[in-house]
Automatic annotation (TrEMBL):
SUPFAM superfamilies with a match to the protein in the record: Transmembrane di-heme cytochromes
Subcellular location: Cell membrane
Membrane topology: Multi-pass membrane protein
Stretches that traverse the bilayer: 12-34, 54-71, 92-110, 143-163
Cofactor or coenzyme needed: heme b
Superkingdom in the source lineage: Bacteria
Signal peptide: none
Keywords, comma-separated and alphabetical: Cell membrane, Electron transport, Heme, Iron, Membrane, Metal-binding, Transmembrane, Transmembrane helix, Transport
Similarity section: Belongs to the cytochrome b561 family.
Positions of the Cytochrome b561 bacterial/Ni-hydrogenase domain: 9-179
Name of the featured protein: Cytochrome b
Entries under InterPro entries matching the protein: Cyt_b561_bac/Ni-Hgenase, Cytochrome_b561_oxidase, Di-haem_cyt_TM
Predominant place of localization: membrane
């Protein structure tokens, strides 16, 4: 089952979800690590290039995810879940998407503030905007920093909610994000 159904996510949505989760946590960890490096550290340029390349890849995956969501079916909440908790979960998902868009955009603005394109794994380059604003790198850097920490906070709550569904509520919320389920 590649596509979503009314009761379950399909393999495409599941794969994109987990790839993005790995990307977010990997980029966050790398970002925390690399801000401690000095210019003369051997891994300084390599970590920055890797962070940018994975960030652009994550941006492309995010665009694909938005398209997949718009064009496909979204599973309904599992039976027995409260409307209030469904609203909280829906709001958390919106916050995650908003934070991802802000992080990707601010990362792009940081990386292109000097007018240079972003090299992606030495395969292609994402061009810079023709104009930049004063202190663009600093302003975008602060936004990127706070949005990244905010994203991690919401993602941790999201994961705790999934674990609550699995271990306390004993429903299929988490299971259907691990493997597609047959329609009930």
């Amino acid at each position: 089952m590649l596509k979503n159904s009314k009761s379950s996510y399909g393999w495409v949505a599941i794969l994109v979800h987990w790839l993005m989760a790995l990307g977010v946590f990997g980029l966050f960890g790398l970002g925390v690590y690399m801000v401690e490096l000095t210019y003369y550290d051997a891994w300084y340029k390599g970590s920055l290039d890797l962070h940018k390349s994975v960030g652009i890849t994550l941006a492309a995956l995010l665009l694909f995810r938005f398209g997949w969501r718009l064009l496909g079916t979204q599973p309904e909440p599992v039976a027995g879940s409260s409307k209030a908790m469904n609203r909280v979960a829906h709001s958390a998902h919106k916050l995650i998407y908003l934070a991802l868009v802000v992080i990707v955009t601010s990362g792009y603005l940081i990386s292109t503030a000097d007018g240079r394109a972003i090299e992606v794994f030495n395969l292609f380059a994402v061009p810079a905007l023709p104009e930049s604003v004063a202190n663009q790198e600093d302003i975008a850097g602060k936004i990127h920093f706070y949005a990244a920490y905010g994203l991690i906070a919401v993602v941790v709550l999201h994961a705790l909610g999934a674990l609550k569904h699995h271990f306390i509520d004993k429903d299929k919320t988490l299971i259907r994000m691990i493997k597609p389920l047959k329609d009930d």
